[in-house]
Batch of 3 targets.
Target 1
Amino acid sequence: MDNSEPQLADQDAAIALLRWYADMGVDEAVAAAPADLRRWGAKPAPRQRAAAPATSTPVFKPSEAALPADEAVAAAQKIAAGCNGFEALEAAVKAFEGCPLKAGAHNTVFADGTPGADLLVIGEAPGRDEDRIGKPFVGRAGQLLDRMLAAIDRDRAQNTLISNVIYWRPPGNRTPSQTETAICRPFVDRLIELTAPKAVLLAGGAPMQALLGVTGIMRARGVWREIETASGARYPALPIFHPAFLLRQPANKRLAWADLLTLQKRLMED
Ligand code: URA
C-alpha cells in the first residue's frame, strides 16, 4: 500500500476535525510563536514595499536580525533616536528586523493619518484586516473608532494620527509579549516625540499598560495621566475603552462618550 496519499477514512476524520475546530471558533492555523511565512513559500504579494529610506534614515542591517531581546531593544533605541522626522521613522520601522513578530506578518502596520497632528491615537496591535492592508484600525473596531473620532470633529485625513504599540500582527491576535512590546517601544516613544501632540488617546488597556504602566481600564479610563518617553519628555494621555470592547459591550459607549468629551475639551484649550 502506498502510504504517501492520505486514505479516505483519514480525510473524513481530518475534515470532521477541521469542522469541529471551525465550530469552536478556531478559524486560523497559528501557533503562539510567529511562523516565518517566507520559509513556507508564501507569496511575497501583500507585503508592502518599504519606501526607499531617506539618506538620513538609520536602517537596520540584516546582520542584526534574530538578535537577543536586549540587543534588539538597544538597536531599536539607537535607530529611533536617529530618526528626525515622521517619514524617516516610518522607513526605519519598516526596515527593522529585530521584532520576531515581523516574520509571521504580511505587512508592517506603522501609522495612518496626519503626521504632526495634535491628537495621536495609540492602540494595541494590528489584527487580520490591518495586517492585510498595512494600516492601523481598518477593521470593524477601526470603523467604530473613526465614528467616535468624527463625533468630536476628528478624522485621519485632517487632524488625527493613529498608530499602535506593536507594528506587526501577533499570531492569532494573541496578546503581545512584554519582549515584543519592549522592542517596539523606542519607535513608539519617538513617534510621540516627533508628533508632539496635545493629547495621546490610549485605546484600550494594552497601550495603557505599555505606555503608562497602569492596569485596570475600567477604573483608569477617562483620567488624564502623562506618558514619559525615553528622553524624559512628557505628554498628556487619556485612556479610553478599546473600540473592539465597545462592539462587544455597547452599554459602555456612554462612558466612552464622556471620555471623548473630556478629550475634546482638552484639545480645544490653548
Ligand atoms: N486594534 C488595535 O488595537 N489596533 C489596530 O490597528 C486594530 C485593531
Target 2
Amino acid sequence: MLERIQETAAFLKGKMHTQPETAIILGTGLGSLANEITEKYEIAYQDIPYFPLSTVEGHSGKLIFGKLGQKDIMAMQGRFHYYEGYTMQQVTFPVRVMRELGIKTLFVSNAAGGMNPAFSIGDLMIITDHINFFPEHPLHGKNIPYGPRFPDMSEAYDRELIRKADKIAAEKGIGVQHGVYVGTQGPTFETPAEYRMYHILGGDAVGMSTVPEVIVANHCGIKVFGISVITDLGVEGKIVEVSHEEVQKAADAAQPKMTEIMRELINRA
Ligand code: HPA
C-alpha cells in the first residue's frame, strides 16, 4: 500500500511544477471553482498509476494543479464514493497521495440532506464534526505510518478555519449554518425513520461522502475544512421524494455562495 502511494506521488511530482500545500476536493456545489483555477495543468485519473477511475456520471475524473488567486493548489475533480463499489483504501487513496505531495490543508464540499429543523434547502452548513456510519473504516488494517494506530479525532474539522470561514461569511453577508455531518454508505437516501434516528443521534445533515477522506486526512496530519450544501430535508413533516436531479439542482443554486466562501478562505488560510 505505502509503496503504491509513494509510486503515485513520485509520478505526480515528476509532472508538477508547483508545490501546493492546499488541496480541494471539488464535491457537489464546488464544481465551478475549477473554472477559476489559473495556470492550470491537468492530469486525468486514468493516466495516474493506481488511481481509481470515477464511475458516476457528471463526476469527470482529473487532478487539476494551478493557482486559485495567489495560492498554489491541487484540486480533485471527481471523487470516489464507497457506494460505487470502491474499497475504503481506494476511496481515500488520493488523500494519502496528497500527504506524500506535501499537502497541509484539505477543503471539501458535499451535498447533504438536512435533519436539523432550522435548516432550509439551499443552506450552507459548515461542518463542525462528523459521525462515521460507514460499514468499513478507512484505517482498518495495518497502520500506515503517516500517523498513530489510534488517531485523535477531537478536532477533525479545524476550528481556526471554521472561525475564518464564519468571518468571511459575515463580511459577505452570506448566511451559514453549522452542524454535524453523518456519513453513510448510501446509495439509498434515508427513510423518514433513518433521518429521525440520525438526528436523534446528533446529526444535522447526512450524506454519502467526505467522512472517509476526512478520517484519513486527520490520520495524515492534514487540516480539514468542509461545507455541506443542504439539498433536501430529512425533517419530519417536510420529507418529500428526493432524486439525484433535485439534489444537483439545489446544489447548483447554492454554488455561488459556496464558491465565494471557499475561494476567499483558501486565499486567507
Ligand atoms: N441523504 C444522503 N445523501 C444525500 C442526501 C440525503 O438526504 N442529500 C444529498 N445527499
Target 3
Amino acid sequence: MSNGSSSGISAVPMGFGQTARRDWWWVQPVAVFLGFSAFVIYATWSMFTPRNYYFGNYLSPFFEPELWGVSPNAWFGARPPMWPSWFIYSPAMLILIFPLGFRLTCYYYRGAYYKSFWADPPSCTVGEPRSHYRGENSFPLIVQNIHRYFLYAALVFVVFLSDDAWRGMWFAKAGGGTTFGVGVGTIILTVNAILIACYTFGCHSLRHLVGGGIDRLSQKPVRRDFYRCVSCLNRKHMPWAWFSLVWIGFADLYIRLCAMGVVTDWRIF
Ligand code: FES
C-alpha cells in the first residue's frame, strides 16, 4: 500500500520508515513491542515452570482453572493420564491457549502488534516495508475472525478468575476448616478478576453480540442497557487491555514470591 499525505491532495510512495511527521510517532510502537515481548517471555517461562504457582489458598491466575496439578485446587489429580511421561507437564499448558488466543485476536491488540511487530505500517503516514496490502480477508490473517469464539471461552474464564479471587478470601484455620479473611494476595487476585472482567466485557465482538443485530435498541430495554455498559467499557478498551495484562503477570509473580518465601503475604484481617 502506498502512503500519501493525509490531505488527499497527493499520494506519494514512501520508503520504509519515511514520513513527513515530526512528532515522536515511533515511541508507541516501540513501547508496545517491549511490553508485549516482556509479557510473552514471562508468561512462557511461567507456563513451563510448574512449581511455586500456588501459596496457601492463592492460585496463580495463569494456572486457573487447574484441571490436573499438584496444588490443593486441582480438579482431578496430579497429571493427565494420557500425558507422555517424557514430556514436561504444567497445568497452564492445558488452558493458556484460551486467554492468549483471546488477546492475540483482540481488535485492539491486532492493530497494536501489526504496527509494532510487522511495521504494517509502523504508524499512520509512515512508510512500510511492503508494496501491497493483503488485509484480513485471506489466509492466514482471516483466522483472526476466530476472535468471537475465543470470546465465549473468555467469558467462562471471568467466572474462573472470580472464583480464584473468592477462594483467596478463605484461609486455613489452625484447628481445621477455613475462615474468611483478606490478605494482600486476596486484593491482588480480586483486582485481577475485576480488570479481566472489564477487559472482556468491553470486547468489540461482545458489543456486536448484544446490540449489533438490532435496528431499534430502544425497544429492547434490557439489551439496550447491556449494550450501553459494554460500550462504556469498550471506549477504554486499550487501557483495560494493558492494565489487565500487566496485572495478571504481577499476580503470578506475587504468588510465586510468596511461595518461595521471598515476600510475606500480609493479612489485613
Ligand atoms: Fe479486544 Fe474483543 S476486541 S477483547
